[in-house]
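In response to the reviewer comment on reproducibility (Comment 2.3), we provide here a single inverse folding case reported in full, input and output, so that an independent group could reproduce the run without further information from us. The C-alpha cells appear first.
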C-alpha cells in the first residue's frame, strides 16, 4: 500500500494476492471438493481454503464476499478530495469526495490467472469525519453491469 497527499487531494494505491498451495481437486466454489489424497472435503473445510472478493474498494460493483476461490489478485487506486473542512455551515465536519478504480478476480486454477480474466470495478464515495467515527456512502459499479450501494460507520480502508 502506498498513499500520498498534496493539499486537499489524496491518492492511495494497494495490491493484494493469494494462492492456496495444494488446493483440492474440483470446484471449491460450491464448497465441496476432493483433497489431494482423494478424501472428500466438506463445506466448512473447503470454505476456509477460499479467498473472497466483493465489497467497497474490493471489487465495488459486487456485494461483499460475493465471489471466492483458492487463488486471487486485486489492485486498487483511490482518489479523494477534502471538500469540507469543518466549522460552521452545511458541512460542518471534514468531508471527502472520491472515486476508486479496481481490477481483480478469483480463480479455481492458477493456470486461469491472466490480465484478460480480470474484473474491472469502480466506485464513487462520500466520506464524513463525524463524532461517531467516519461515515461512508458509496455506490459501486463493474464492467459486467452489476452495482452495489454501501453505507458504513467506521474505518473501511
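Designed residues, in position order:
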Amino acid at each position: 500500500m502506498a498513499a500520498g497527499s498534496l493539499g486537499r487531494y489524496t491518492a492511495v494505491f494497494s495490491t493484494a494476492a493469494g494462492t492456496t498451495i495444494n488446493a483440492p481437486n474440483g470446484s471449491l466454489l460450491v464448497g465441496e471438493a476432493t483433497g489431494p489424497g482423494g478424501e472428500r472435503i466438506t463445506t466448512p473445510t473447503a470454505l476456509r481454503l477460499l479467498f473472497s472478493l466483493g465489497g467497497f474498494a474490493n471489487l465495488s460493483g459486487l456485494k461483499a464476499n460475493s465471489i471466492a476461490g483458492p487463488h486471487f489478485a486485486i489492485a486498487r487506486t483511490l482518489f479523494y478530495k477534502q471538500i469540507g473542512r469543518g466549522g460552521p455551515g452545511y458541512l460542518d465536519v471534514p468531508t471527502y469526495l472520491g472515486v476508486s478504480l479496481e481490477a481483480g478476480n478469483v480463480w479455481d486454477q492458477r493456470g486461469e490467472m491472466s490480465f484478460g480474466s480480470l474484473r474491472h470495478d469502480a466506485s464513487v464515495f462520500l466520506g464524513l469525519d463525524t463524532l461517531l467515527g467516519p461515515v461512508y456512502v458509496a455506490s459501486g459499479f463493474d464492467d459486467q453491469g452489476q452495482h452495489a450501494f454501501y453505507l458504513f460507520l467506521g474505518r473501511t480502508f
